[in-house]
Amino acid sequence: MLSNLGNILLFLNVFLSLSIIYVANKNLKISGEINKNIYQLSLIQSTSIIICFFVLISAFIVSDFSLITVYQNSHSLKPLFYKVAGTWGNHEGSLLLWAIILSIFSFLFLIYNKNHPKKFRLLTLIVQNILILGFLFFILFNSNPFSSISPIPKEGLGLNPILQDPALAIHPPLLYIGFVGASIYFSAAIASLITNYSEKSFSHSIKGWVLFSWCFQTLGILVGSIWAYYELGWGGFWFWDPVENASLLPWFAMTALFHSLIVFEKRNLFYFWVIILCLITFILSVTGTFLVRSGILNSVHTFASDPSRGIYILIFLSLMIFGSIFLLFQKYKKENYDLNRNSKETFILVNNWFMMFYLITVLLGTIYPIFTDALTDSKISVGPPFYNSIIFPVVIIFLLFMAFGPKAKWIKNKFQNTRIYLLILASAVCLNLTIIFFFKSYSLLSNFIIISALFLIMSSLMDAAKALKRNKFDFARIISHTAFGFLVLFIGLNDIFSIEKDYNIKLGETKKFEDYSIQLQSLDLKNYKNYKAVIGKLEVKNINSNKTNILNPEIRIYEKPKTLTYEAAIKTSLIKDYYLTMSNIDRSDYYNIKFQKKPLMAWIWISVIMIVIGGFVRLFNNAKNN
Amino acid sequence: MQKIIKILILFIFLFVIGIFYISLKRDTNYDTSSLINKITPEFKIISFDESNFYTRDDIKKNNYILINFWSSWCTPCRIEHPILMKLSQTKNLTMLGINFKDKNTQAIKFLSELGNPYDLLAKDKNGKQSVKFGVYGIPESILINKDLIIIQKFVGPLSFEDYNNIIKIIE
Amino acid sequence: MKLNLFIFILIFFSQFTFAAEKTVDPNQIHKNLRCLVCQGQSISDSNSDFAQTIKLVVKDLIDEGKTEEEIYSFMSDKYGDWIVFRPEFNIQNSLLWILPYIVLIFGGFFIFSFLKKRR
User: Fold this and answer.
1) Which of A310, A329, A370 sits opposite B19 (nearest CB)?
2) What are the CA-CA distances from residue B131 to residues B100, B149, C50, C55, C56 (Å)?
3) For residue A181, what pLDDT band results from cuts at 50, 70 and 90?
4) Which chain C residues are within 8 Å of A394, Cβ to Cβ?
5) 8 Å CB contact of B134 and C82
6) CA atoms of B70 and A33, how far apart (whole Å)
7) What is each CA distance from A599 to A140, A395, A500, B12, C17, in whole angstroms?
């Protein structure tokens, strides 16, 4: 029943998209206002796709195993919350969520941009609906969440315990709002190219969307990292895994985009560059999806992959890419710029320059193994050491530019107060030396990173103080930039001062290292509703201060499907986290424990949250001014 | 100049998409086939009864050698065991069994139940020797010729096809 | 005055920074090796049989006095380049290592070309 209802709604949506395209296309040739029917159609479209999604959610809630998707990804014993979250935790359901975001954004873009040219608005709508159609066809003919199965199975397969987690439940929607949201400025860019709508005001139509998607993309990445930190059990939060990279690539493009939009809005420069960034952002989103879902990359969290999906997304991707290129080549006009060296424009270009560098590095690292495998038949791994050694040295210069940039004036070539900067630099160096003096020394590269991060923080704060006096306070920018400085600082300090120890330990045994001792005091076996757990009781003692902490890592044994998972025990405080995982060693009575002391972890999360808050503040201010 | 850049851009994208397309159809699973046609590494491995050591010289005596990593706790090893028993009847082949991370009593019980196909039996108590042979999971079998060149690697249990394959090679 | 300050900082600085000692850290090596039987984990993160074995072998190799680089090349000799997370710099991987910097330099020139030319 639900299967039929879902399919009918999907077909209804195909029909609605087609009619929107048809009516909008007819309306293009007529002068006057936009046809009222288009608004109505667009509203019905959004509503019906949402209903369609609710049908799928209810199928998950009532555990209707006649749907393959529900059968494969759910289980009647799952807690209600995870049954619902399971709807978008799989390939088919997540595509439906994509379609929702595409449709809602399409509708909102239409109603919120009434003071832009009619042709531009209609064409954006048409392009967006072509994208929606592409996804609807993909859903209907390749990844249909409403496909039925017979005979109807008694019980579902999926109860994957690692995926039953609140962070993982909200992670995909956040991320999708981010990079699927990028579709709307992809469409707008295409429409702007076709209609030659290249005035400053074009930037007003997309600015809010870019910021909005950027904020959600950042939050999505943050939640994903937090999940990886406490759930995957290796105590890190970023592994440069292909899936993580796929979410980072559009982020770089978005970041570059909303910076250069500032220039475009103010000075009507870089039109084509803005357009290219709009196009790239969504193209990268789809590329990332292709890489993750087609299974051509090995990764921590691969969706069950299937080459036919790959072919479909690849065709879709090629159409997008070559369509964009074709249009760009047609419309491209050479622009000549004459910028002053110390003007704001130049510094924002510098931001874009570095963003492109990061983007290319991460993209190259992600897809290079595919190329070596296809061309020379050799499989290579590109992992954290590659990214760290290429990216981090460049971050230093980037932070310095980030400190100088915002102080530059539009157009003018004036740079004030070199002396103040020297003073700040000197105090950053002194602060760094103080850290070394009181704690420990670290590598030259780390020194530079800490210094440049401190430099950025201090000069941003000084900016804030100055701006407060003059009552001209760009709150959003100052929060985000300062928080970014803190982020790099905390990541640097975290890396430098982390302690990591790995032992094989028996019951009752004590291990000592540096200022700590760890004792495995007891092991408990407990039965829970759907799993059994071996719970260790380990005492971590700081020998100097005589403070003790009890940590309880778990080994969980799930029956359906049969899996072992290792739950880390984490003691979080503002200064440091203790992180402990325990695992059994096959055929022995030893347990492998990994103890980590991770300083300032909480502050890394807080910094990212502050960066996002900066984004939302800007979004809010923009809305208020318009 | 502009034309060249345009063509270049088009070419790059075509190339990337072409590679993506090819890769979709390729098997992306990892294997250690790169070791095939390389020479067997030097090794010194203790015999099962700990009476002596085996080295490369010991396996050069016959035309072909099959090194088989196994253990009593490994279920797929039980599945492939009949094939190993069949292979042990061929003349041209020396079988070197390496007992991997196992308990002695368990291993002896395993062999007395299912038969002992090995001409030479060694053990790798902590698994360090297996790394020399590029083994990452058991069972794994490595076929080597008289010149100590690795001819074939079989990751996972040997199948009947593998058996026919081996017979074809050594005859 | 500026120059003096700068030199002073540099000297002050170098005394601390080069004090950082250089030893082969097994944890570092474990992090840079892929656990072949796991999904995208490093040897350090994994506790599989395979990871345990590799950890033992790495310890042996360090005791033998092998350098970090030698250990990586030992591993990629046995298991292929797939096992090392840091791709070697060779002809095949040259684009991977060089292209980012080419982009960086090229981008710099690009921006420079936009700047006002002055005498």
Assistant:
1) A370
2) 11, 17, 9, 11, 10
3) very high
4) 104
5) no
6) 78
7) 49, 21, 12, 44, 21
- Alpha-carbon gap, residue B81 to B85, rounded angstroms: 6
Question: Residue A300: which of C13, C30, C40 has the nearest Cβ?
Answer: C40
Segment C15-71, tens digit of pLDDT: 554 444 457 788 889 989 988 887 778 888 887 788 888 988 999 999 988 888 899
Is B20's CB within 8 Å of A314's CB?
yes
**Does an H or E element contain C74, and which?**
helix C68-79
Tokens at C116, concatenated:
């006002």
Pick the more confident residue, A222 or B165.
A222
CA-CA distance, A531 to A77, in Å (whole number)?
Answer: 12
pLDDT interval class at A454 (50, 70, 90): very high
What residues in A contact B25, CB-CB < 8 Å? Answer: 307
Q: Assign domain B31-170 to its CATH architecture.
A: 3-Layer(aba) Sandwich (3.40)
H-assigned helices in A332-343: none
| Cis preceding-peptide flag for A166 (omega within 30 of 0) | no
Rg (C-alpha) for chain B, rounded Å, is: 21
Q: CB-based contacts of A329: which residues, under 8 Å, 6+ apart?
A: B6
Question: Concatenated DSSP letters for A162-194?
Answer: GG--HHHHHHHHHHHHHHHHHHHHHHHHHHHHH
Residue A415, pLDDT above cutoff 70: no
Query: Residue A371: which of B17, B19, B25 has the nearest Cβ?
Result: B19
Q: How many CB atoms lie within 10 A of CB C30?
A: 20
How far is the C-alpha of B85 from the C-alpha of A435, rounded, in Å? 67
Q: Tokens at residue A263, please?
A: 């220039």
Q: Angle B57-B63-B65 (CA atoms, 0-180°, nearest 5)?
A: 65
Cβ–Cβ contact B12 with A under 8 A: no
pLDDT band at B29 (very low <50, low <70, confident <90, very high): low
The CA distance from C52 to B100, in Å, is 13
Cβ of A375 within 8 Å of Cβ of B16? The answer is no
Average pLDDT over residues A524-552: 89
Q: What percent of chain A has pLDDT over 90?
A: 55
Q: Model confidence at A159, in pLDDT bands (50, 70, 90)?
A: low
- What residue ranges do the domains of chain B occupy? 31-170
Residue type at A547 in one-letter notation: K
Of C19, C86, C92, the CB nearest to A441: C19
pLDDT, chain A, mean: 89
CA proximity to A28, closest of A113, A123, A115, A112: A123
The per-residue pLDDT for A110 is 93
Q: What was the pLDDT predicted at C18?
A: 46
Q: Is the dihedral of CA A179, A181, A182, A186 positive or negative?
A: positive
Contact C33, C85 (CB under 8 A): yes
Work out the percent of chain A whose per-residue pLDDT is above 70.
97
Instruction: Provide the pLDDT for residue B44.
Output: 87
Question: How much is the pTM?
Answer: 0.91
Q: Which of A119-128, A468-477, C85-94 has the lowest mean pLDDT?
A: A468-477
Burial-class residue B140 by CB neighbours within 10 Å (0-12, 13-18, 19+): buried
Partners of residue A373 in chain B, C-beta under 8 Å: 23, 26, 28
Q: CB–CB of A302 and C97 under 8 A? A: no
Q: What CATH class is the domain C21-90?
A: mainly alpha
d(CA A105, CA C87) in angstroms, rounded, equals 42
Per the structure block, which two tokens stand in for B89? 């009847």
Chain C closest-CA separation from residue B89 CA (Å): 31
Q: Give dist(CA A225, CA A167) in Å, integer.
A: 10
Q: Is A64 left (phi over 0), alpha (psi -120 to 50) or beta?
A: beta
Residue A72: per-residue pLDDT: 87
